[in-house]
Amino acid sequence: MTLAPDEDLMLQVRDGAGEMLGVLFDRYQTPLFNFYSKLTGDRTLSEDLVQEVFLRILKYRQSYRPGTPFRAWVYQIARNARIDHFRKFPRERAFEPEMLPPVLPTDSAQEHQEVELLHRALLQLPEDKREILLLCRFQELKYEEIAELLGCELNTVRTRIHRALQELRKSFHQLTQGTLKQASAAAAENLPPRGGRQ
Amino acid sequence: MKCEQISELLPDYLQGSLSPDQHRSVEAHLQQCTDCSEEVAVWRKLSRLPVEQPSPMSRVRFEAMLQAYLAGRSNQPASGLSWKKRPSSWNFFHWLRSPLGAAAWSAALLAIGVFAGLHLAGPKPTPPDIAEIQKQLESTKQLVVLSMLQQQSAGARLEGVSWSTREQQLNPQVLSALLHTLRYDPSVDVRLAALDALSRHSTQPQVRSSVVNALQEQQSPLVQVALIDQLVEWHDREAKPHLEKLRQSQDLNPAVRQHADWAISKLN
User: Fold this and answer.
1) pLDDT by residue (tens digit) across A110-131?
2) What contacts 24+ positions apart, CB below 8 Å, involve B6-12?
3) Domain for residue B51, yes or no?
């Protein structure tokens, strides 16, 4: 039963089997949580928004139509929940990557450092660009589904993804260069003074 | 191929949906172009970003919400609207075709007619005062809401509540009708919708106090949970003693009690 498609489960929820929502929760809470946490950088808020999504699924269950891909439907709800939240509580200041602790080259292995810098570069993107990358890369929505979600043409989605990726590359490049400079500066400081060995 | 041409193909390349020919031309370009190949590399690296796990409390909160919902459904009075019959979403045109919608529409047309008549029949035709007409239309709409909230059918009352959310400002009569609906409507669905509509008017002091008071009065766990969520959303610290009182009340649904505990910790 747990292997039933999302759509079948949602129809059961709609028709009265509210307990089936638990299966959908198990399938979607982590992807949704990651969508929000990578978008806002705020874990607590992300957990609250995930709860809000499932409450809304119950509230609006009657608007779910057979044949609608559940994934696309649930991300529509997720986007609206976030938009409504920030409408009610406008952010005093946007998330600043500077709020994160600095990434030092000596922190850990290079692989880990690279991933950390990429995460930071992602957080530096304007929210709409970050969102579209998250939707297609992490939430695995098809471009058609994203077009419907954002209310735009398929080609616009392609262009936006490409622009977002271009900006991410630049930002990642800058961060990597910056860290390399820090690394060489730190290395230079640690070098023994010239002639010290004599 | 140049970067501009590639940029049109790149998103589909990333999804692996290009024809073999196109795929080959993109690959050939990537061999020569550092910027484009770095873009592809960044895209691939994105999949290495760690998947974060929500805290275990998240599942507990969901369970509490779901239990409250299931309990709310079994407590739903027989007179309440069967949720299968509930209209799926607000559909303006559908509503216009309904008898009630037709009546409201006629009332609106009548209001326009009366105003146009008054202005055109006057000895000196003056340009119609748009603001005045708008004001009249607003009050007509508010009347429609008021009349819908008093309908026998829960579906019509639900539509009345939805209709009220289209207004930026509520007149005091509509506001008090919504507050009355939140307290006394026999249908859980209508009470929930009323709470949703009222949450948009949190600047009105009586809205907040009514939500706090409803906490003690409501018996449906689903409504109780929605009220608690609303108070947390408003960060209403004054609600804390009321939540304490609620959690101590006997016969309280355990899921609601758990939810109240969560809310109290949130408001601390």
Assistant:
1) 777 888 899 999 999 999 999 9
2) B6/B33, B6/B36, B7/A162, B8/A158, B10/A162, B10/A165, B10/B36, B10/B39, B10/B40, B11/A143, B11/A157, B11/A158, B11/A161, B11/A162, B12/A158
3) no
